[in-house]
Amino acid sequence: MRRFMSLLLAGLTIPSALLGPAFAAGQNCEVTRDGERSYAVCRFDPATDDVRLYLNDAAGKPYGSFRALKSALESEGKRLVFAMNGGMYHEDFSPVGLYVEDGRTVKSANTNKGPGNFHMLPNGIFWIGGGKAGVLETEAYLRRKPPADFATQSGPMLLIDGKRHPRFLKDSDSAKKRNGVCVTKKGEIVFAVSEGPVTFWEFSGFFKDRIGCDNALFLDGSISSLYAPELRRADGFFPLGPIIAVTAER
To answer: Which residue from 67, 115, 116, 236 could staple onto 12, CB 3.0 to 4.6 Å apart?
Structure first.
């Protein structure tokens, strides 16, 4: 699961060209501080907001970027409201774990042991379906089989039933830019990306204490990317695999 450092595309964060003229600040996204750390946080209601996963375009080619997805959506008369990288992937952009799009299972769940963050068990799955969403530990997802129209697997879980992942260390010095997702008790989807390096302990604590979630999922680390016009963010430094996006009619 190399992160394509050799393919860093300098200059692809181009707010004026990619974001367009409208910047409705604060409607869904804001920057929140937690002690010395700050996070970009975006909230959506799966009952009213069109939250989906995207991987390949109509020709079967991976979108690979927010720019490509935005262009494809505009050709369909849709507007990209929000986007975030949506789970770990291989060099060919294919998902490492479970990936469901429009009710079709593109990749089955990965329950193997192995190296890296994805295999820091328990890992988990973020799903959307029937106007609802959730984050579940992978084994729990496979047992419960929620009505998922879209789902993506990543890891590790940040929070499991209100508790931090058992392998997180309070005194860890492994700090990186990170992004993740949770669903509140009211059913609201909350996406967050750190504005700078944070440890897993700090990141999971943000979801637990500031957002108030019981279950939260780590999506990825150094490649963490965000498209949020409200925050004038249109990250584009890294090629992307699965993309979580919110769209609206133009």
So the answer is: 236
What pLDDT digit, counting tens, does each position of 119-129 carry? 999 999 999 99
DSSP assignment of the chain equals ----GGG--TT---HHHHH-S---TTSSEEEEEETTEEEEEEEE-TTTSEEEEE-B-TTS-B--SHHHHHHHHHHTTEEEEEEEE-S-B-TTS-BSS-EEETTEEEE-------STTTTSSS-EEEEEETTEEEEEEHHHHHHH----SEEEEES-EEEETTEE-TT--TT----B--EEEEE-TTS-EEEEEESS-B-HHHHHHIIIIII--S-EEEEESTT--EEEGGGTEE--SS--SSEEEEEEE-
Tens-digit pLDDT profile for residues 204-215: 999 999 999 999
Read off the pTM: 0.90
Give CA separation, 200 vs 27, 157, 197, 216, in Å.
Answer: 28, 10, 10, 12
59, 68, 106: which is closest to 87 by C-alpha? 106
Q: Tell me the three-class secondary structure of 200-224, residue by residue.
A: HHHHHHHHHHHHCCCCEEEEECCCC
Shortest CA distance to 118 belongs to which of 218, 30, 230, 29? 218
